[in-house]
Every structure is written in C-alpha cells, then in structure tokens.
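Question thread 4412

I'm putting together a teaching handout and wanted feedback from people who do this every day. The idea is simple: show students a protein as raw sequence, then show them the structure tokens that encode its fold, then repeat with a second protein so they can compare. Below is the first pair exactly as I plan to print it.
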Amino acid sequence: MVDTTRSNRREGDAGEAFRWFMNTNPAAQSRVASIDLIRGAAMVLMAIDHVRVYSGLPAGGPSAGIFFTRWVTHFCAPAFIFLAGTSAVFYGRRHADLARHLVIRGLWLIFLELTVLRVAWTFNFAFGRYELAGVIWCIGWCMIVLAGLSRLPAAVVGVVGVAIIAGHNLMDPHLATLTPAVAKSGLGWLWKILYFGFSAGPIRVGENGPRLMVLYSLVPWVGVMAAGYAFGRVLTLEKERRNRVCLAIGVGATLLFLVLRGLDGYGDPRPWRAAASGQARAGQMPAALAFLNTNKYPASLDFLLMTLGPMIGLIPVLDRLRGAVARWVIVFGRVPFFFYVLHIPLIHAMALVVSRIRLGEVSPWLFADHPMGNPPPPAGYSWNLPVLYLVWAAAILVLYFPCRWFAAVKARRRDWWLGYL
C-alpha cells in the first residue's frame, strides 16, 4: 500500500486532486481487482466506436455486424461514469477535502474537452466554428455536481442518483413538443446542456461564436455518477458479502431491463415493436436488434439497466480472472485517462494513413468537425468492417506500450504532474 501521508506531503494539491479519478488503482485500495479490469475493458471497447467515427460507417446499421460493432461500445460510458463516482468514495475516505478536489478535477476535464481533445478529434483549429461537449465534458460537470452531493450521506446520494436514472423518462411523452420549444427558448442553451443535448440543435456561443454540440447531457449521467458514489460503499464490504450484493444488483437490474423492454412501455422513448414493424421513423429493424436498440442520447432507463446491470453482476466473476489477457487489459485500466488522451489522435492519424493507402490521397473529410459536426463521408471513402477491426487492433497494440510505460512511471514516482495524465 502507498503511504498516503508521505504522498500528500510530497505532492501538490493540484496533482492529488486529479489522481484518483483516472489513475488510482481501486484494486489496491479495496481489494476489488475487477475494477481496473472493467475500466480497461471499457477503454478497449470504446476505441472500436472511435475508429468507426473515421471509418465512415454509420452508428448502428444497417447490417447486424455494424449494429453490434456499435452496440458493444454502449457499455463504456456507463462504466466509466459510474466508476468515477465509485472512485470518489475511496478518495474521500483518505482525504477531508473531497468536494474541493471534485471541483478542480471537473474544471480541468471541461478545459481539456474544449481544447486538446477537440483538436484531436478534428485535426483543425477552427474553434470559432465548432466545439464538442462530449463524455469528458459531461464527466467534468457531473463531478462538480457530485462535489455538492458528497456533503450528504452516501445513501441519500444513491437515492438521488437512482431517482434521476429511473424518473427522467417521464419526459418522454412530451419530447415532441418540448424539443422545438427548447430550441427557441431564451434558456434553451441550459436545457440542451441539462437534458436535450444535440436533439434540440447546437448551442450558439455568442452572436458569431462557435456552435457547441452537446453529445452527453448532464441528465441522467449525473445520476449515474451519484449512484456509483453510493455503490462505492458496497465495494468496502467484506469480499463474500460484496460479491453477493453485486450479483443481486447486477442480476436484478438486468432482469428489470428485460421486463421493461419486453413490455415496451416506460423506460425508453423508442418502442422496439414500432421499429420491428417498420413504424419507426428510422425504418424497419429486425426485432432482436430493435429490442437492444435503446436510447443513448440522453441515456434511457432501459439503456442504463442494459449496460450497468451486466457490468455490476460480473464484478465477482472478473475479480477472479487471471492470465495474460487480463493483465493486458488491466494495464489500460490503471491509466485510462492517459489512454483516452492518446487514442483519439492516434486513431485519427491512422485513418489518414488508411485513406492514403485506399484512395491514393488523404481525404479532406478527415479534417472536418468530427464526431458531431462532420458531413457524410465522400463517395467511395467508407471502410468495411475487417478494415475497421484491423485498425482498432493495431491501435490497441500500439497503445499498450506507452500505457505500460506510464503505469510503471506512476508506480515508482509521485510527481504532482503525473496526476493530470
């Protein structure tokens, strides 16, 4: 175990403020080895969808192969945000200034999203034209909200989180009238950040300022982080009891998803029977795929039950995994933010190479405002799935070595700046 008293003396407050979110090893603190494994798996799966962004393939169809290429990545954001709340519990047990740290860390993430990561996504510097409020932006704001909630008992925070997750779909019957009204409202920008996101159009920052595309609205993700904060208490339990509770929560959430989705009533704004029968606006979809095609923006109750349920239920199983593959994945789970910052420009650069090989030129489309403000890919550009997965595998292989190096650096050094990567 790390001598945290000595560490606090040697490191500045700013570095310590960020460390627990992306780089602390929960397994070392709580003996739950599966947490780094889940984080690492989330990063690896997430990279598939980010390769897809530059492949020109659509998000979710029309073939089953493309659908599941997208669908498996749905587990990433819920796991990432939920476990960010869980990590706050472990930090708070060792430090008295958790709320302050959450605010500092949240502001840092928001800054990075709007600067470094925006350039990595687009490979252009036209900030006056386009900005992206993506998952890192969302995590930053959720941390700032959690800073206030953390003053409350963990059980109360958990109730608030579950209430947001379970109750926000009450707005579904009113979305058709509310969305255009929000777009015209003077406070429309706030409603877009809180709930409606890009479905109500971009936020114009000033009369001639950039368009802010809100990909991840705060609701229900702030509820996911709050629920993860409460779940952190579960991970402090004795191992056998902890595993029983995780299994009960995971199986219960998964079964609830099957029931709610099967009834096709409350829990998601897109009825799967309508899609399966061709009544949905997006056209007909096979029943099995329509059943799994839950709403991510904003994440519906069904979407979160479908993703968080299996993740939590698998914790006891993953806690026992050993072997080379598990060790590889855990490396990414120990330095996930370092992975995140590296993987977007790496994948983007690899797409330039693929374009040069396939088309004989680097397509100007790769310098558009990805992933939300870009036009459709030009004719003849789009990849097939084998190329997509080959690029993804190559990216993961390349990323393993700097991630392993950085994990080793963090294990032997305590420089304050390490907490920012």
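The second pair follows. I'd like the answer to focus on this one:
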Amino acid sequence: MKTILVPTEQHDLMRSTLQTALLLARQFDSYIEGFALFPAMVELYALDSGVPLPIEVKEHDAEMAKQARSLFETFMNDQGVARSKATSPSLSFDWLDGAPDGDAFVGSYGRVFDVIVLGRAGGGRRSRPSVATIEAALFEAGRPVLIAAPSPPRQIGENILIAWNCSTEQARTTALAMPLLQRASRVTVLTIQGGTVPGPSGEQLARYLERNGVRSEPITVAPEGRSTGEAILAKATALGCDLLIKGAYTQSRLRQMMFGGATRHILANATLPVLMAH
C-alpha cells in the first residue's frame, strides 16, 4: 500500500479521513496524493416543461479548490510529512491540480493507486461525502477503498475483523487487505449465521490466511434479531477492533437500496475504519 489517494472536500469528516490516510501511510512509508473533489453538475427543472437542464457548477470551484488544497496541505505540513514529486520509497505527499469535477474521476484516477481513502457517507442525498463517491471508487477503480470513521482513529490495523460471508467480493477484499493482515497483532474471521452465500467456511479462510503468514481466529455468531450489518458492527465493537475488512455489495446496489443490506448499513453506521472492495 505504497500509494494512497485522498479526494478532498470541505466537510466535517475530512480531518478523520486525512488522519486515517496518514496512519496507513506511516505503516508502509506511502505517498499520499490529494485533489479537490466537486459534484459534476446540478439539475434544474424548467417550470413549464419539467425537463431537466444540466448546468455546470463553476462559480465556486476555484475558491473551493483553494480551500480543499489548503486543508490537505496544512494537515500534512502540521504532521511533518514531506512534500515530494519523486518516486522515492518514503512517506511523502503532493497535490493534483486541475482534477475534473465529478465522482467518476475518483474511480478512474484511483486505478493507479493502491488504496483510496474516503469519509463515511453522510445521511442525506446531497450530503458530503456521498454514497455516490464511494460507489464510484468501489465499482470503477478496481482498488480497495478505506472508509474513515467519523472520529479520527488513534491506530489502524492492529486488531482486524474480517466479515466473512463466503462471497467473491469478500475473497477479493481479503486478498487486497493482505499487507495489513500480515502486520496485524490480532485477526478474527467472523461469520454471521444466515448472512452468507455458498462458499468456503470461515475455518477454511483461516487456513488460507495461516498459509500466508496470518494467524486468525474463526468465529460464528447468531444475529440475535439483528441485521447482518448490525451484528458485524456489534462484534467489531465487542472485540475492540480498529479495522473491518468487508466485501462491498454482494447483493446488487438496487436490492440494497430497496431492502437494505450489510454494505449500506456499514457505510452509514460504522464507527471504525472499514476497508472495502467489490
């Protein structure tokens, strides 16, 4: 995890996002790059026709980009991180100017980074950070996305919970998390009864991990009237975990929007960092 991308906006969770990215970067002597992220456009509707009229949002972009850059650079400077465009294997940062507006750039540009760090999604349709930003990263980048918790963490990756549901998405996420798993002091493989798809058991995953130098404890718990997402977060809290590894959208996005799902619940309610991939 030598290269980390941090889309930067002005919102209350940005400091926690930056702190999460820095904690990860310090473990791997990573390069952190930031850029100013804006919504691509808004839609206004003509009163007489009801036809959407896309209007590009430009008037505040320059000032917002300046504020985002100042936030990112001030944080890095205050934390003693060196600025560098070189490809040296040491902790450093830089800023990308002139990034295109819109969430799509997060997914496309993120393909040349090891991990993308974003804040936990806000509650409203227009709140920032948005679920749309996170989904663009998950579905388009082909890279893991580290979702920061609302409060800045003090550590990350010492006590890891893998939310094993036997799925392709979870297998991919676990593999992408291997650099962190191999450094962890404690790893727990959690299976929620009734919250899985057909596939290998948690015990089989634990054997795979051990062959890769990761000792883990597989456990299975009953949901006890809770949703799968609720049961996962409750166990993470009970175990004092500082990172959750969770495959994203085993069910389709549409189904999760209509009926709910573990990914949606965790995106909205996690109080610890979550590493996700699809």
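Top answer:
Good format. For the second protein you could add a caption like this: DSSP finds ten helices and 13 strands in the chain. Residues 137 and 144 are 8 Å apart (CA to CA).
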